[in-house]
Design a protein that fits this description.
Two copies of one chain form a homodimer. The first copy, chain A, is of the alpha/beta class. Chain A is 45% helix and 15% strand. The first copy, chain A, has a six-stranded parallel sheet, with helices on both faces. In chain A, helix 5 links the parallel strand 1 and strand 2. In chain A, helix 1 crosses helix 3 and helix 10 crosses helix 11. Chains A and B meet through helix 4, helix 5, strand 2, helix 6 and helix 12 of A and helix 4, helix 5, strand 2, helix 6 and helix 12 of B. The first copy, chain A, binds a DNA duplex (30 and 30 nucleotides) through helix 2 and helix 4.
Chain lengths: 338, 338
Amino acid sequence: MEKLQLPTLEDVARQANVSTATVSRCLSRPDTVRSSTRERVMEVVSELGYTPNFGAQAMAARRTNTIGAVIPTMDNAIFAKGLQAFQEEISKQGANLLVASSSYKKGMEEKQIRSLIARGVDGLLLIGDDRDKEIYEYLEKRHIPYVLAWNYRDKAPHTYVGFNNFQASYDMAKLVIDYGHRRVAMIAGVTEGNDRAFDRLAGVRQALSDSNIPQESFLVVESEYSFDAAGNAFEKIANNEHRPTAIICGNDVLAVGAIIRAKSLGINIPEEISITGFDDIELSTVVEPGLTTVHVPHRRMGTSAANALFAALKEQKTRSRKFETQIIQRQSLTAPRK
Amino acid sequence: MEKLQLPTLEDVARQANVSTATVSRCLSRPDTVRSSTRERVMEVVSELGYTPNFGAQAMAARRTNTIGAVIPTMDNAIFAKGLQAFQEEISKQGANLLVASSSYKKGMEEKQIRSLIARGVDGLLLIGDDRDKEIYEYLEKRHIPYVLAWNYRDKAPHTYVGFNNFQASYDMAKLVIDYGHRRVAMIAGVTEGNDRAFDRLAGVRQALSDSNIPQESFLVVESEYSFDAAGNAFEKIANNEHRPTAIICGNDVLAVGAIIRAKSLGINIPEEISITGFDDIELSTVVEPGLTTVHVPHRRMGTSAANALFAALKEQKTRSRKFETQIIQRQSLTAPRK
DNA sequence: GGGCGCAATGTAAGGGCTTACATTTTGAAA
DNA sequence: TTTCAAAATGTAAGCCCTTACATTGCGCCC
């Protein structure tokens, strides 16, 4: 479509009878312009409906005041709360947020990262750490500060603002075992390219092994994060000849999907099968029975990630921050029937 | 932080021993460059880790291939599905999506719109139509095509891709009345600046009036879209001296919030009070009793909105599209007790 | 009244890319 | 081989800002 001529800085300058520099200053540092001049300029600005061209601005100023975030999905609530807090903090500091989603696809994530960087973001929020080395090298080469959230590791060359998925999952598995469960299954998220899902699975494995429960009796089904897929996974597990007494789910969406399917199959939760989740999103309070799950401090993590990024931007350095998770016991986990 | 020198088009051109024009062409229209040349250039591109500067690109080309969307919130699932479909369609057409959220605040929305436009979006997706005239004038003046989604009106100077909130809500209210309810209340969304919430309330009012149910006995409480706020609204209504037998809720989040609170107060749904929702997000299948609600074809609407926008971009014109909604009956609505 | 210092404003050089138009190269036909 | 249109490539103007530096204006002191 044909673009019409939009008013430019120069148009404003001409009409207000000042130089472009003065107009620019009126917009970015008003206090450096005499008020009489400023008023005249601002009047023309609104009269013409002038809006500065972001691209030109970015190019001339060599910064954008914009933070980028690439999250796996906006389609379920896992990241919503944390991202909301992240965004609020970014705004509070006078910057903007650009969000892109990758649909849990590595290739897509890389594309989004490049696109955000091309758009000049000053820093990046990424989820987890499972991505090609090249991406990190690229970020280093371009000196783009980044923070990895929703996971945490002690000894790694990145800045993490998150929690230990392995440990949290280990603790949950231990709890399940303490309740007396010996035949345990897991509906895990797809672990390929998803370090959180991977770590959560690994945590459960470790807990079983530490309790001398053989891996052979441990049934794992990976599933996409949808009710339906999780339901299918549940059905597969429930139909296994040695039906487990507890299913640990990689997140709340999976757990709720399992519970819904259980109901439609007439399987009682938790009497026949206990189910646990992970994330503690609102859903887990809505479903019945209430979901026993791992609470993650989403909002604090989001805020903290924003601050870590600003610190990196200002001081060229920043450090990781670890959050503790906590198991919230509701009704979906109980002791196995005798 | 000090910005280092990033490779530019010119760096690539020099090292590949061609002109900047050729490099540019390699990137944007590869078929216009001889393959031997192209390969040489692309090699240098990846060697240098070159990424075009988006701002410069936008400025020179005078378009960005980017669509913007301003939605009220990402914090609940109302817009998630539709937006996801919107985004998929945008991607399919080779464009990008920039999403901003306004927290249901008019001022914030205007800011976000301006910011997206400054960033050069070629078109905009907005939710509903309740905003200052100045914003529409501004969009016209800048020739930015826009589409209004999640609502639909016959006679208005905008392009709508949505459904008739008034009618859908009217139908739901009629159904409630047909079940025999005479004392009805509504937990409405905040209607200020939210035409969907407003229309849904108006629809219920009309239905009551058409059935000769006096408005005086109709209790309305506006509530934010959170479980807790909705719970408070529910409590207020339940404690009313003439407790209604049915509560029509402005959306599913409100309805679920009401149900949760009802449970904690020991009020049986639907035996003591029937409850209905609107939107048919996943939540309504999770809660117990299952929520009787208005189904909205989120995905089709999102896809259609994207196509309407592309049509507007290409042909300078586009037309509205109306979707039908449908009441999904689950268990939360039943006849009142005698 | 002259001089000084600071505040206000102006000048103009980029910043990295696209693309219209100009020029060169290529390869097929004569 | 020559010729010439088409294909490939090059040249350079322009897109719209910010900001370092230069200039002007102004109030005040001696």
